[in-house]
Amino acid sequence: MQAFDVIIVGTGHAGAQTAVALRQHGFAGSIAMLSKEPDPPYERPPLSKEYLAGEKPFERMLIRPLEFWAERQVELRLGRSVAAVRPDERRVILADGDGLAYGALVWAAGGNPRRLRCEGADLAGVHSIRTRADVDALRARLPGAARVAVIGGGYIGLEAAAVLTGLGKAVTLIEAADRLLARVAAPPLADFYAAEHRRRGVEVRTGVAVEALLGEDGAAAGVRLAGGEVVAADLVVVGIGIAAAATPLLEAGAAGGDGVDVDEYGRTSLAGIYAAGDCAAHRNRFAGGHRIRLESVQNAHDQANVVARAIMGSPEPYRALPWFWSNQYDLRLQTAGLGRGFDDLVVRGDPGQRSFSMAYLRQGRLIALDAVNAVKDYVQARKLILDGAAIDRARLADPSRPLKDSASA
């Protein structure tokens, strides 16, 4: 049985950065990266933006050139998925029955798109956006599609709607909640994006549930909503979140549920096994110490660095400030911090001018900020959040003053 000092499962941002960081810190042992995908490590955010739009070729999405991995003696095992983990034997069992032994195992498998659970969910022409193959399949059907239904009003759905509208498609966006971005943003931001999409021609439908997908000749032809209304569609894009890809670890006895639980050093409850990225549930100080999963490049990158240091024997706890971004049309949204549990909301600037920010406060302190085409506010908010600064609300609300001046003396 072949053995590696470190096996990394997953070649997304977390997996790739773990390998990079190990070599940067001088790790000389053998490293193998396993992925069920056939492609070398690549960036995921462009999938719902520039890659879907045909503006960015795949080669420009590679996290590192292909020769980088060979030069650093990181062995890529592509098209290989892990079926089981045997922690007592320190080995993984691949789907084809092969086994690989490890000294340390890093689980960075990310997540899988949540599927609709209704009639017609398996029709041709129903697509998700998670991998290159997903988007290639979607793009292949676009020339024959005039009407597209996008199910899900989170960032993936909104980004896809923006791109598809720009490609000349008639887009209907369907969200079961009573507003867009219900899990991640306050109502004023949701209202702003709903208005923006409608102004661009997207039909935004909120507070409506999908009852079934309708088909003709085996392909999607419409979406039936609860109540019986049918939205005609030649193509359906489903963006209703992801489920953590951690089943083999959980079946092996790792603590977890929604993902695999890790401590502040990225260690799971199983000896020698670490986890990072979308699949890792950790206690986050910016979430009041609650255990959460963060689906972001920032989290994947920072957790990977933590795991690499732990493997090297120089552990440093995960303390990174969460941040996110979304590009839709000519709008650049940047978010710092986590707004959950806010008790006050301050809007800086006029959303009608399409450059403003929204500050989330808790007990008089800034805990998060959404900046729309307002880079300075975003940069200054990061420091205020990290400092836990008390905020003068009147100064914060005045867009003529730098946001940093809102810290109370």
Give me the secondary-structure topology.
Elements: E1 2-9, H1 13-24, E2 31-35, H2 50-53, H3 66-71, E3 74-78, E4 82-86, E5 91-94, E6 99-107, E7 111-113, E8 126-127, H4 132-141, E9 147-151, H5 155-166, E10 170-175, H6 187-199, E11 203-206, E12 210-216, E13 219-225, E14 230-232, E15 235-238, E16 242-244, H7 247-251, E17 256-257, E18 259-261, E19 273-275, E20 280-283, E21 291-292, H8 297-311, E22 323-328, E23 331-337, E24 344-348, E25 356-362, E26 365-372, H9 375-387, H10 393-397
Helix pairs in contact: 1-8
Query: Which range best describes the helical content: under 10%, 10-25%, 25-40%, 40-55%, 55-70% or over 70%?
Result: 10-25%
Would you tell me the structural class of the helices and strands?
alpha/beta
The portion of residues forming beta strands comes to 25-35%
**Rg, alpha carbons:** 22 Å
